[in-house]
Design a protein that fits this description.
- The complex is a heterodimer of chains A (262) and B (162).
- Chain A is mainly alpha-helical.
- Chain A is 62% helix and 0% strand.
- Chain A contains eleven helices and no strands.
- With 162 residues, chain B is α/β, with parallel strands linked by helices.
- In chain B, 23% of the residues lie in helices and 22% in strands.
- Chain B is built from four helices and seven strands, in the order ααββαβαββββ.
- Chain B has a four-stranded mixed β-sheet.
- In chain B, β2, α3 and β3 form a beta-alpha-beta unit.
- Chain B starts with a helix and ends with a strand.
């Protein structure tokens, strides 16, 4: 067998970053035109736009790396629209259905808090493009984090009904939190090459920030002790049923009319 | 006039499609122009990662320069250093205000971590009162926030610091 010499390319890691941003951006965009009040409808649509923009930056970079490694030409659109669920490397949390406003808010808050620590850390990435995309994204994520934190507090410490909704959101989403800090092989590889970062190390800080907000929101504090392995791992392509439905809608045009432009 | 100056002059005529009173030079998104023989490379940076205006801006840059005979062009997107409202020209800020959009404050106050933080007083572009309130941190485009004047009661856009 001939030995294949390959230079390490962090494509899986980059596609994972893109997928997290795209899927959450798409989920939020489902609220466009349906927000509880116009201002918040606009706010969530703006957050979608930021996330989809971040996803595009990562997809474009991944496509560029794929193209130089001699494989057939890959574009950002192919990565977003021509892959099926098992190819997507987003975490399970971002693909969960929107539910009510409380669930959407909590999902955004948990992810924004994670993305804030992630992008802050990726500023030190040896890969200049990843560092540059992170620098841009970090400014936007700061807004998302503040906005979603305020809403968690407003709902948790609001009326009896809004408090109940927030508790329900925690019980529906919390099981997906540990995955954020569980390293896949491509995350370990990226970290070892100085391109990624030690995502497990964010756990104490993330949990502390979440509990700070929960305390203000009059929600009980939470722990992340569920270290047991789930059979599912979105980051490794084993998704919940929700992703398939999401892709069916998001990819419809490109599936029906491949390569169409407007 | 050097070729670079000439190109910058032409680019000063290309406006932001969302805020049509501002040229892309006023906005500070043209980072550099490099001339190499008969080829020109224009380095531009997006205001926000998902700003939909960027695609239109790229097309408009190409068209304007082509109309002036510059055909051999390369448009490069630069992400770092990330765009900041500090790069907006003073002239641009005046134009914004005249258009009815409160310009970004000179002092950087990008999103602070303190919650429910009102930030500095933003001047109403219509009646100049500082007695204004924020309605939403997110507005009609990613770069704007929604405000309302407590005196003249007019709602207005604020080009937020970033």
């Amino acid at each position: 067998m001939s030995k294949i010499v390959s230079l390490y390319q962090p494509t899986d890691f980059i596609v994972h970053l893109a997928d997290d941003a795209l899927i959450l951006g798409h989920r939020n965009s489902e609220w466009t035109g349906h927000g509880p009040i116009l201002e918040q409808d606009i706010a969530l649509s703006n957050i979608s736009l930021d996330l989809i923009g971040q996803a595009r930056n990562f997809y474009q970079y991944a496509a560029k790396l794929y193209s130089v490694s001699g494989k057939p030409v890959v574009t950002e659109d192919i990565l977003a629209y021509h892959r099926d669920a098992w190819d997507f490397k987003n975490c399970l949390l971002v693909e969960q259905s929107n539910g009510d406003w409380a669930k959407t808010i909590l999902r955004q808050f948990l992810v924004s808090q994670y993305q804030f620590l992630l992008y802050e850390s990726l500023l030190q990435s040896k890969d200049a493009t990843i560092s540059a995309i992170s620098e841009k994204a970090l400014k936007e994520v700061s807004y998302h984090l503040r906005w979603s934190s305020e809403w968690v507090i407003r709902l948790g410490d609001g009326t009896e009904e809004s408090h109940k909704r927030m508790l329900n959101a925690v019980s529906e989403l919390w099981m997906f939190a540990p995955e954020l800090f569980t390293k896949t092989n491509y995350e370990k590889e990226a970290e070892a090459n100085g391109i990624g970062t030690d995502i497990s190390s964010f756990k104490p800080k993330w949990l502390q920030k979440v509990n700070d907000i929960f305390r203000e929101a009059t929600l009980s504090s939470v722990v992340l002790d569920s270290e047991e392995l789930h059979t599912l791992s979105g980051k490794e392509g084993r998704h919940t049923e929700h992703l398939g439905y999401l892709l069916a809608e998001m990819q419809f045009m490109q599936r029906a009319y491949p390569g169409c432009e407007w | 006039m050097s070729v670079k100056e000439e190109i910058l002059e032409i680019l000063n005529g290309v406006n932001d499609p969302e805020v049509p009173v501002l040229s892309i030079i006023d906005l500070g998104i043209v980072r550099d122009v490099k001339i190499n023989n008969d080829a020109a490379e224009i380095m531009i940076t997006p205001t926000y990662s998902g700003c939909p205006a960027m695609e239109v801006i790229k097309k408009n840059i190409q068209r304007s320069l082509a109309e002036h005979g510059y055909k051999n062009l390369k448009l490069t997107t630069v992400l770092s250093p990330a765009w900041t409202t500090d790069w907006m020209t003073e002239k641009g800020k005046e134009k914004l205000k005249a258009f009815g959009i409160a310009p970004p404050m000179a002092k950087q106050h990008i999103c602070k971590p303190e919650l429910f933080h009102e930030g500095e007083a933003i001047q109403c572009p219509l009646c100049n009162s500082y007695n204004t309130k924020m309605i939403s941190r997110f507005g009609s485009t990613p770069c704007k926030a929604l405000y309302q004047c407590n005196d003249c009661l007019e709602p207005f856009d604020y080009f937020k610091c970033h």
